Amino acid sequence: MVRTRISWLPVAFGLLALALAGAAQAHGVAAGDQGYIEQTSGPQIAAFLYLGAKHMVTGYDHLLFLFGVIFFLYRMRDVATYVTLFAIGHSTTLIAGVLLGTHVSPYLVDAVIGLSVVYKALDNLGAYQRWFGVQPNTKAAVLIFGFVHGFGLATKLQDFALSRDGLVTNLISFNVGVEIGQILALAAILIAMGYWRRTASFARHAFAANVALMTAGFVLFGLQLTGYFLEGSPS
Question: Are the C-beta atoms of residues 103 and 109 closer than 8 Å to each other?
């Protein structure tokens, strides 16, 4: 019993720690990277590939959502399907949001991203079946929330003085980097999940893990709304 409790604690506190860290950094770009983005001109494929991959690996909100998405997926074909849907949504709004200049407060977008984590955790818990007697289309939900996650980064990039010279090439390179980072991060998550699923603690703690995931999403949601009202609301 003691070993069971010890094995669970890192999972619960790890998720909450990621949420708290991600609330401050969700979709953020480091000062040095921002300076480079604003100063560069012309196509810079390698640099933007790196920046995109770095963003995804440190994008805790994305990783929490993907953790929820793959939690009960055991076949690689299913994992690939859902991750592809997320990538399509993420890629579309990342590129279109910047090129079209569609702007919404990043705090509000990130608050919705927090709710996407809550949504997926509740889905994993079977809440919608018990509460409403229906099961939402999980593939459609992942695609829709992929749009939201991509738009979140687009709202950040819109605040930078991006050069129009090579903009499309750089945006595509950045997006490809994001997807590379997503594959790397997802591979690490799948390896960890594979080990966990082979232990008896997985079946016992699946419910608690998704409650922790839901809590992390609410933390993200609350902190982003707080940021909006304190800093990001219109004057």
Answer: no
